[in-house]
């Protein structure tokens, strides 16, 4: 996970007032997974990031970076 995404998830989670258990239930992921994502200690799948972002009311969208070479 990129540093800025990890920071955003952690900051949003902290402000949410939710516990890790509440986040994991709301996101539909395991407690250990939610804890690791919030602490930025794993490289989660895109599906997990989507679920966590949805649970925190964050919009996840692609960002284009530079031009692709053919």
Describe this structure in words.
It is a single chain. Helix content is 57%, strand content 0%. By secondary structure, it is mainly α. The radius of gyration is 13 Å and the shape is elongated. It starts with a helix and ends in a 15-residue tail after the last helix. 20% of the residues are buried. The model has no long low-confidence stretch (mean pLDDT 91).
Give a nutshell description of this structure.
With 70 residues, the chain is mainly alpha-helical.
Task: Give keywords.
70 residues, mainly alpha, 0% strand
What is the H/E order? HHHH
DSSP summary: helix tally: 4
What shape does the CA trace take? elongated
Low-confidence stretches: none
Proportion in β-strands: under 5%
**Gap from first CA to last CA:** 26 Å
Rg computed from alpha carbons, rounded to a whole number of angstroms: 13 Å
Mean pLDDT: 91
Annotation, overall tally of beta strands:
0
Structural class: mainly alpha
Largest sheet: none
Helix content: 55-70%
Q: How would the blueprint of this fold be written?
A:
Layout lengths: L2 H14 L3 H8 L3 H8 L7 H10 L15
Helix pairs in contact: 2-3, 2-4
């Amino acid at each position: 996970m990129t540093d800025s995404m990890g920071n955003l998830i952690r900051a949003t989670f902290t402000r949410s007032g939710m516990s890790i258990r509440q986040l994991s239930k709301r996101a539909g992921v395991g407690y250990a997974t939610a804890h690791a994502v919030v602490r930025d200690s794993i490289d989660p799948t895109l599906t997990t990031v989507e679920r966590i972002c949805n649970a925190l009311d964050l919009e996840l969208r692609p960002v284009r970076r530079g031009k692709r070479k053919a």
